[in-house]
Amino acid sequence: MCSSDLTLVRGGGSCHNRERDGEPAAVAVDLRPARGLDHAAQVCFFRALGAAAHAAKLRWGGDWKRRDPTWAPDDLGWDPGHVEDRALCR
After folding, report:
1. Which of 4, 18, 31, 57 is deepest in the core (most CB within 10 A)?
2. How high is the pLDDT of residue 29?
3. What Rg do the C-alpha atoms of the chain give, in angstroms?
4. Beta bridge partners of 82
5. pTM above 0.85, yes or no
6. Phi, psi of 59, deg, nearest 5
7. Cβ contacts of residue 43 below 8 Å, gap of 6+?
């Protein structure tokens, strides 16, 4: 298993690093817009991602009540690039 300074969550404690029968079974992904896009274009990307997540009945980090200062003025929650399967992640 690779180590990372990106999370303080132990293995299996995040929807990103779940396992099933000893094999990776993640039920979440973080998506980011292409590099070099200005803030407005990134906001458009995240709003489209949120709409797609809602349509697919997935949980979207842009809906989270906690606000990241970068995205707070745009009302994009804590992690607007995060998408997870609600049922499998709980």
Report:
1. 18
2. 84
3. 14
4. 30
5. no
6. -85, 130
7. 71, 74, 76
